[in-house]
Specification:
The chain has 513 residues and is α+β, with helices and mostly antiparallel strands. It is 44% helix and 31% strand. The protein is elongated and about 180 Å long.
Length: 513
């Protein structure tokens, strides 16, 4: 039984193609005049009558021949107009919206003002942040300056205490010596001091001789010479003290006592001043140590200042960002607007969506049958609101999704190459995609094509007998099918029949060409 192959392919989108057979063949495809058709009908009736009279039945078929022509394959469907590029506008400032200048559906130009903010509130926030930064900076500088003073005072106290402790020790030792000398208070002390002084002089002479001898015999013996030199200095100091005591002892006893006592009082007074100053330095050291900041306190003050500076910088940036408002980055159409006048919003809040009106696309879903014919870069014609536009297939999704009837469909995008201001987003568009074309191809009417599990085939009439011929098909249109191999232009192809036919059956062929 004859079976039409194209009826087996059910697609979501209609597929339409156009064929342009050669003109010389088209002339042969003209409809037969009414008289010729009548003659054919009469002939069929006569033949069937004769056949029945003879006890046999011969089928009558009409035949045609393949023709040469040009064929173009297209995919026809419909889709939805969308923008090829959309920009979501988020608020870059934390502020109160003063005015929204657009609503969804408005057309805008590059540079148009979309949203403005309440700058009076922004100015107040900036001034408050500036004052906080000034206070924090002053506090930090004051604290660091005070800490520097405390460190200097601590260092001064430590240095002075070291010197004072040595002075006090020296004064106490000397004062003890003076008191002991005054207690003796005897004249023979002078002779004793003279004797001691002579001994010291002798000792000094001996040491000097040793130094001279060493210097002469071994000038490089620096260590021993240095030790002897130090001993010589100590003897000289002792001689000086004894000379002073001798001078006192040589005066009258009363004068001696007065001078000794005066020296004792003077040293005692100096000792008292040193101890008093030491007490002051110890107090200064304690106070300074308690006031000097540790590393954690310094980090805390520095962090507080940094936070204040960051807050001001953020407020400043927020202010100038809000002052600019929200501006359109390109010519487009507002497809969504959620900004509300008077609303106080944080930074990052979505305000609106702007679709680029200069980059327009049409989206549609293709079935697996159409997908076999589609390629990126194919040209297309799109009809939108009665206007025709050129386009190219720009994207084919790599993943299918199920439609409402459970059929897997693949998303396809067509970029419009010549958009204008007449295009309205969201409308339907009629699509015709040029998928393939061929020149001077061997063409047959689509209704003559049959198919079974073995493939495509045709019935032809050879010497009054039905013959099955397997064929290889190429591209097709609604009315024409390209045959790549399997038949020639001379084959009589069965076009229509008045009964069921099968291979090997005897038939009467009625050509229509």
């Amino acid at each position: 039984m004859k079976k039409n192959k194209n009826n087996e392919l059910e697609t979501e989108n209609a597929v339409s193609q156009s064929a342009e057979p050669l003109k010389k063949r088209k002339k042969k495809r003209k409809k037969a005049p009414i008289i010729i058709l009548a003659v054919i009908v009469v002939l069929v009736i006569v033949v069937r009558f004769v056949a029945c009279g003879n006890g046999t039945e011969t089928a009558i078929v009409t035949t045609t021949k393949a023709m040469r022509g040009d064929l173009e394959e297209t995919v026809s469907t419909s889709g939805t107009v969308n923008s090829d590029e959309q920009k979501i506008y988020f608020s870059r400032a934390s502020a109160t919206i003063e005015e929204v200048h657009v609503v969804a559906g408005d057309s805008v130009k590059n540079g148009d003002l979309l949203v403005t903010y309440d700058m009076e509130a922004m100015d107040k926030a900036l001034r408050e942040a500036a004052l906080h930064q000034t206070v924090s900076l002053s506090s930090y500088n004051s604290t660091i300056s005070a800490n520097s003073d405390n460190q200097s005072k601590l260092q001064e106290a430590n240095t002075n205490l070291s010197v004072l402790n040595q002075q006090i020790a020296d004064y106490k030792a000397y004062l003890t010596q003076l008191k002991e000398q005054l207690t003796k208070n005897q004249r023979d002390t002078s002779s004793g001091l003279a004797t001691e002084n002579m001994n010291l002089t002798s000792r000094s002479s001996q040491i000097q001789n040793q130094i001279n001898a060493l210097d002469k015999d071994d000038p490089n013996n620096f260590t021993q010479i240095q030790e002897l030199t130090q001993q010589l200095q100590e003897v000289s100091a002792a001689q000086a003290r004894n000379s002073y005591l001798q001078q006192i002892a040589s005066s009258s006893a009363s004068d001696y006592d007065v001078k000794m006592q005066k020296e004792i009082d003077d040293i005692a007074e100096r000792l008292s001043e040193c101890e008093k100053y030491k007490a002051e330095m110890e107090s200064q050291k304690t106070t300074s140590e308690n006031s000097v900041m540790d590393s954690y306190q310094k980090e805390n003050y520095a962090a507080t200042l940094e936070i204040a500076q960051m807050t001001y910088s953020q407020a400043e940036e927020n202010y100038y960002t809000a002052k600019q408002g929200v501006i359109a980055a390109f010519d487009g159409i507002v497809v969504d607007c959620t900004a509300v006048e008077g609303a106080t919003i944080p930074s990052g809040t979505q305000l609106m969506v702007l679709a680029d009106s200069n980059n327009i696309k049409v989206n549609f879903n293709a079935s697996k049958y159409d997908l076999e014919k589609l390629e990126i870069g194919q040209s297309a014609k799109l009809t939108i609101s009665g206007n025709v536009y050129d386009g190219k297939v720009s994207k084919i999704d790599r993943m299918a999704s199920m439609n409402q009837s459970g059929t897997p469909m693949v998303g396809v995008e067509i970029h419009i190459t010549n958009p204008d201001d007449n295009i309205i987003l969201g409308l339907d568009a009629k699509i015709e995609i040029n998928t393939k074309n061929t020149k001077n191809a061997l063409l047959v009417p689509v209704e003559v094509i049959n198919a079974d599990k073995e493939g495509d085939f045709l019935f032809v009439v050879e010497n009054g007998i039905i013959v099955r011929k397997a064929i290889v098909c190429g591209i097709s249109s609604d009315t024409w099918q390209e045959v790549i191999e399997g038949i020639t232009e001379e084959d009589q192809i069965v076009l229509t029949t008045f009964s069921t036919i099968e291979e090997g059956m005897a038939v009467i062929a009625t050509p229509t060409y």
